[in-house]
């Protein structure tokens, strides 16, 4: 053992530690094939059902389907992350990790990477299915559709990480979904354009990140090129995700009462 | 405090002075002062709820609201540089139930020593730690499918990775059968003698006290005694550490009562 190197304080962020954390999270998922199957299959199944719910009006499927391609990854990642980090807190592994030379940024980056990778698979399947098999008519590039879906997944991961700090049990964590996600779902413009809502609700929807996720999808639906409105929406979703990730990092405490 | 000593004793592994910890509205540890010598096994004994775990959390640097002096391996407790030098095992096993024993340890090893360059050393550490706690035959079993005692040994193995200079073990032998308990104590002594590790081991089972080099007896957030098992028995004129502890508790209770009545 070499005491001079051993006593060097660890770096605040280490790519190797983040990757090790991401690999660990994915390994945990691999031991749980049913969760993987549910996360992959359920969004696809919902899109298929939706397509045939609007059987006589394929245009409605275009609008709602495109929005849902952004909303599904957000909701799934929100649920998975909030439960996973809650388990990390309650099982004592979080305390152990924070007593080890792991930066808070490493832990958060690890989760974001692992679930981000998973979100790519989920979104690619859902997008491919919608565009090629269900005839979703998108004017813009399917790749941009995928990009937005991925950013939404990141936002979901960030929100999940953040709210898990306020949940003392799995019951509470699951209840945060209606509390955090449903209002955004109602106000994001999925059911009716945001411009037609009551002015108060519209103002509220202006500050909710999911509104911009849906707006970005709508832009892609109608425009061939990336519009400035699309760029703004994407930027807002990214900024929100990063902001909430930083807030989530602040909830990780090395010393607890 | 201005004296000159010809041969200074080796610096203490843990040094506490006027250490107080508050949890919620009340103080859990009151004004503790003690030292833990390096390379030895120090037992932290006392009834449940006397503040053993809180003291261990303070030493590991995970406890909030710690006041007074608490130096660990020459640095204030919780210093970032200490994170690779201390192995801390909580009372409840803190491992991932949905990973195998080896996968758990591989992950914690990667946090201690990241990077591809250290891969071989990590593998060796993981294999050694699994052998240390006698789980080689269960290396590829999910931690969630192990028995409680086995899972707590996985948690202990994780703390042995990276050869820490100080091991803080909160009730490591609870729920283990006598054979395993003996084997673990053998391991603790081996760590102290061959690897020079300092161990702080808590227990509420008094017969384990006899296996320690030194003892800190705790009661209601205070330290009743800080001595070797032998010296404790001699001082109290008792046969066992358990009897010595009870003697000291009675003494403290009587003292407290006299203080109360003279007030």
Write the layout of secondary structure elements.
The complex is a heterodimer of chains A (257) and B (263).
Chain A: H1 3-6, H2 15-30, H3 33-53, H4 58-90, H5 93-99, H6 104-133, H7 142-164, H8 170-187, H9 199-206, H10 209-222, H11 228-250
Chain B: E1 14-23, E2 26-36, E3 41-45, H1 52-60, E4 66-72, E5 75-76, E6 86-89, H2 101-112, H3 119-132, H4 148-160, E7 166-169, H5 178-194, E8 198-203, E9 214-219, E10 222-227, H6 229-236, H7 241-262
Parallel strand pairs in B: 3-8, 3-9, 6-7, 7-8
Antiparallel strand pairs in B: 1-2, 1-4, 4-5, 9-10
Describe the structure.
The complex is a heterodimer of chains A (257) and B (263). Chain A is mainly α and 257 residues long. Chain A is 77% helix and 0% strand. The N terminus of chain A is likely disordered. Chain B is 36% helix and 23% strand. Chain B starts with 13 loop residues before the first strand and ends with a helix. Chain B has a six-stranded mixed beta sheet, with helices on both faces. In chain B, strands 2-1-4-5 form a four-stranded antiparallel beta sheet, covered by helices on one side. Chain B is an alpha/beta fold and 263 residues long. In chain B, strand 4 and strand 5 form a beta hairpin. In chain B, helix 3 packs across helix 4 and helix 6 packs across helix 7. Chains A and B meet through helix 2 and helix 5 of A and helix 2 of B.
Low-confidence stretches of chain A: 1-7
What number is the mean pLDDT of chain A?
88
Name the helix and strand elements of chain A from N-terminus to C-terminus, one letter apiece.
Answer: HHHHHHHHHHH
Q: Which percent band covers the strand fraction of chain A?
A: under 5%
Major β-sheet annotation of chain B: 6 strands, mixed
Strand content of chain B: 15-25%
Beta strands of chain A, count? 0
Counting helices, strands and paired strands, the structural category of chain A is: mainly alpha
Radius of gyration of chain B: 19 Å
pLDDT < 50 runs, ≥5 residues of chain B: none
Multimeric state of these chains? heterodimer
Biggest sheet: strand arrangement of chain B: 6-7-8-3-9-10
Shape of chain B: globular
Q: What is the mean pLDDT of chain B?
A: 90
> How many strands, which pairing sense, and closed or not: the largest β-sheet of chain A?
none
Number of helices of chain B: 7
Q: How much helical structure, as a percent, in the residues of chain B?
A: 25-40%
Measure the end-to-end span of chain B: 33 Å
Helix content of chain A: over 70%
């Amino acid at each position: 053992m070499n005491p001079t190197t051993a006593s060097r304080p660890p770096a605040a962020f280490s790519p190797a530690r983040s990757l090790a954390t991401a690999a660990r999270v994915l390994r945990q998922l691999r031991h749980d094939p049913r969760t993987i199957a549910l996360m992959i299959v359920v969004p696809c199944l919902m899109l298929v059902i939706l397509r045939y719910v609007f059987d006589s009006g394929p245009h409605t499927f275009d609008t709602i389907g495109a929005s849902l391609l952004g909303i599904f990854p957000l909701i799934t990642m929100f649920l998975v992350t909030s439960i996973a980090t809650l388990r990390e807190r309650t099982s004592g592994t979080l305390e152990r990790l924070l007593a080890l030379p792991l930066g808070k940024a490493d832990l958060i980056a690890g989760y974001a990477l692992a679930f981000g990778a998973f979100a790519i698979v989920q979104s690619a399947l859902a997008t491919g299915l919608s565009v090629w098999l269900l005839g979703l008519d998108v004017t813009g590039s399917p790749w941009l559709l995928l990009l937005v879906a991925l950013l939404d997944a990141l936002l979901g991961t960030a929100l999940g990480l953040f709210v898990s700090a306020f949940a003392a049990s799995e019951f509470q964590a699951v209840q945060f979904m209606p509390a955090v996600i449903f209002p955004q779902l109602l106000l994001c413009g999925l059911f009716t354009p945001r411009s037609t809502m009551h002015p108060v609700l519209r103002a509220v929807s202006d500050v909710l990140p999911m509104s911009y996720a849906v707006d970005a999808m709508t832009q892609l639906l109608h425009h061939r090129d990336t519009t400035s409105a699309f760029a703004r929406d994407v930027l807002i979703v990214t900024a929100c995700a990063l902001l909430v990730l930083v807030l989530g990092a602040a909830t990780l405490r090395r010393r607890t009462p | 405090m201005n004296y000159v000593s010809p041969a200074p004793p080796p610096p203490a592994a843990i040094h506490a002075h006027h250490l107080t910890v508050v949890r919620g509205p009340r103080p859990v540890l009151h004004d503790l002062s003690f030292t833990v010598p390096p390379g030895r096994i120090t037992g932290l004994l006392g009834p449940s709820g006397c503040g053993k775990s809180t003291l261990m959390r303070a030493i590991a640097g995970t406890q909030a609201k710690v006041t007074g002096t608490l130096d660990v391996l020459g640095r204030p407790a919780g210093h970032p540089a200490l994170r690779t030098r201390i192995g801390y095992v909580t009372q409840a096993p803190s491992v991932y139930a949905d990973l195998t024993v080896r996968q758990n340890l591989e992950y914690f090893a990667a946090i201690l020593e990241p990077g591809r360059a250290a891969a071989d050393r990590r593998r060796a550490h993981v294999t050694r730690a699994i052998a240390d706690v006698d789980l080689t035959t269960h290396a590829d079993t999910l931690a969630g499918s192990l028995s409680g005692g086995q899972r707590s040994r996985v948690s202990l193995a994780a703390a042995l990775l990276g050869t820490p200079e100080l091991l803080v073990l909160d009730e490591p032998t609870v729920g283990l059968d006598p054979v395993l308990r003996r084997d673990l104590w053998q391991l603790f002594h081996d760590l102290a003698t061959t690897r020079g590790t300092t161990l702080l081991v808590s227990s509420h089972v008094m017969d384990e006290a006899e296996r320690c080099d030194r003892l800190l007896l705790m009661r209601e957030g205070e330290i009743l005694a800080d001595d070797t098992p032998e010296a404790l028995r001699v001082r109290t004129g008792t046969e066992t550490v358990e009897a010595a502890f009870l003697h000291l508790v009675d003494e403290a209770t009587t003292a407290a009562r006299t203080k109360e009545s003279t007030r």
